[in-house]
Amino acid sequence: MQLDLYDRFVMITGASTGIGAACALACAQRGMNVFAGVRTREAGELLQQQPDGKRVTPVYLDVTDTQSIACAADIVRNAAGLAGLAGLINNAGIAIGSPLEVIPLAALRRQMEVNVIGQIAVTQAFLPLIRQASGRIVNMGSIAGRGTIPMMGPYSASKHALEALTDALRLELRQWGIHVSIIEPGAVATPIWEKSLKTSSAVEEEVTAEAKALYGEAARRIRESVDQASRRAISTDAVAEAVWHALTAKQPKTRYLVGVDARIRALMVKWLPDRLQDWILTKVLHLPQ
Fold it and tell me: Domain residue spans in the chain?
């Protein structure tokens, strides 16, 4: 059994590219009215030029800016009216990689501000519209939220936090019949890979020569692994399908693993001792020992 969301309203953050754009177009294709959170006018125009793009309304949204969030909520409130929001998809996010010993604290704060604080700020702003429509919330997590790898501690920490926040929201909003789910993809073919490598390179430029000597080889091998993972990454369509199920299923899952690599990593975390996982990851990633 599925809910009929035709002509209902959904808000999607981080919809300029990648998973967010795929979710926006998938919802529009199925007849929903989509508010797509974007950072540039060009990104919004590109979405509207796609098939079914006429159902997409670009909304400028920076999840770290309270005024931007408030303006976006006003736009959606005025357009949706008494219908409210059938769904909120918290997809906006960034990925910063660095050894924890040397990461600039400003970069770590930025990672948490976007991936953790920003998600709650947006949820707070849109929850009255969600409650009004008995809608749903879907948070975009990652398999990194269950098990991290070295050099990706900042990103993984943000996704671990989002797992906890999703659990809390699910219990807190249960009394109003509001379902809250989290999507946990493995490697997905999106621009976040390229952006992450650029951000990590920028962070690396800020650290000392001593730090580079300590972690340079490990960082190089992790970058190679990330590059290889991006080449075998699954399509964003698979993630969009999981999001659609979370929005429409009579009994949505609380967690959606997407991709073979995500399922394998989840099994490792569940069944293998930490030391054995460490040994496997060290071997697979060809890390210095």
Answer: 9-284
Q: In degrees to the nearest 10, what's the CA dihedral of 200, 203, 204, 207?
A: -160
- Report DSSP state, residue 234: B
The answer to whether the CB of 179 falls within 8 A of the CB of 205 is: no
pLDDT tens column, 210-261 = 877 888 888 888 788 777 776 777 899 999 999 999 999 999 999 999 999 9
Distance of CA 97 to the CA centre of its chain: 16
Compute CA distances 200 → 30, 211, 222, 285, whole Å. Answer: 38, 14, 11, 18
Directed axis angle between helix 105-112 and helix 192-206, to 10°? 150
CATH 3.30.590.20 fits 9-284, yes or no: no
Q: Is 155 a catalytic residue?
A: yes
Q: Which helix (H) or strand (E) holds 71?
A: helix 66-80
- Spatial distance between the Cα atoms of 52 and 102, rounded to a whole number of angstroms: 46
Q: In what order do the strands lie in the sheet with 136-140?
A: 56-60, 33-38, 9-12, 87-90, 136-140, 180-185, 255-258
Q: Are 32 and 88 in contact (CB under 8 A)?
A: no
Which residue among the candidates 6, 155, 215, 256 is catalytic per the annotation?
Answer: 155
What is the predicted pLDDT for the residue at 59?
98
Which single residue is written with the structure tokens 């969301």?
5
- HEC letters along 24-69: HHHHHHCCCEEEEEECCHHHHHHHHCCCCHHHEEEEECCCCCHHHH
* AA letter at 94: I
Write the burial class of residue 191 (CB in 10 Å: 0-12 exposed, 13-18 middle, 19+ buried).
exposed
